[in-house]
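Good day; I would like, with your permission, to put a structural problem before you. A protein sequence and the structure tokens that stand for its backbone fold form the material at issue. I would ask you to consider whether the tokens describe a fold that such a sequence might reasonably adopt. I set the record out below, with my sincere thanks for your time.
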Amino acid sequence: MKAARRVVTLPPVLRGPDALRFAADVRERGADLLEVRTDLHPEGTVDARALAAILELLVSERGTPLPPAWVAAARWVDRDVVHAGDLAAPSGKLLASHHAERALSTEEALRLWDVALPDGAQVKHVEPLGPVSRERVAVLLETQARLRERLGEGRVTVLTLGDVALPVRAVLARQNVLDYVALGGDWKAAPGQRLLADAAREARAPSPRHAGRLGIFGTSIAHSRSPRIHPQPFDRIDLPEDAPIEAVVDALLPHYRGFAITSPFKLRLARHTGASLDAINTLVRRGDHWESFNTDTEGARAVIERLGARDLFVLGDGGASAALRTVAAEQGLTPRFLRRAAISDPLRGTGIWTWPDRITPPDALRFEGARVAVIAYGAPARRIATDIRQRGGTPVLLGAAWFIAQARKQRALWETST
């Protein structure tokens, strides 16, 4: 089956020329369709014909009726089978949709589609994910398979919504016609959409040699470079800090062969998987269970060797600190691990900053000429480096060294997954 066509929704703040620039931008980044919804854009705020000249248009009726000019310009016309006055659309353009208010059984979902549809109509079925479990994912996949069997290949899209829905949507996308994705930034059209960049990268990649996907779990990880260097398909799974991560990884066991784990889930998943380690950063599928590892020790070793100091302080005491402890013990070092509440006097010498960018350091933190290694990379690393300078320190950017060292080991481990 062909890869799902990637749909990006026009944000409500974009009108006129800004909307045209957005359409051109997402086209260059790999989008196949631009969605314009009547609940987000009143008639007259966008030029549907001009947008359609840049990127094929999908127009969606949400409450307010679709303007005739939008329908004329569109490749697909989305009308809700429950709330639309009728399902009228020009021949070959109808996308009939249903948005369930709760999680459904497969039989309940199939009954909703006991409706007469015009020849060639597409079908979009949407449900909230609800509590995540292996059984719940199996139900959604069964609903998708049964709808495809009833309606035929190339007509069905099944979506799910929720704070932890992203990896489930990625699994469903492999048999969907449409994949609704987000460009990135602060706005998404629906909770659980994955990034356009990740979906486009997967579509360009050759068929994987191994069954199952890869992904990275964390909070605020849109900057992660893991998808750029690891085998595809690879998903950035950005979840809230209080997400039920344990239930999520268990539910995904049949569908993913491995995960990278970053802040804030390293400690929780170490406990959940019964690891002998305080923190983990890697999961590898072994038959019917996950095996956990901490390849951060490879990154910690690279950073400590680059710094070349025998006396170190470490800012933070989370998942990265566990790897630093292990390597320091191997090398006969005794770093000082400093939590935020324990910092009062200015720090000298050489240190390592392990706090994620989203964590605010204590006001009392000051340096007196200290060299401070930053193990983040990209924009977060630059922000941390600025903070270090403002507090009297000299940042040493070693995030790439840490990242590459641990990623090499991760990749070798994933190659052994079963």
Q: What stands out?
A: The mean pLDDT is 93. The radius of gyration is 24 Å.
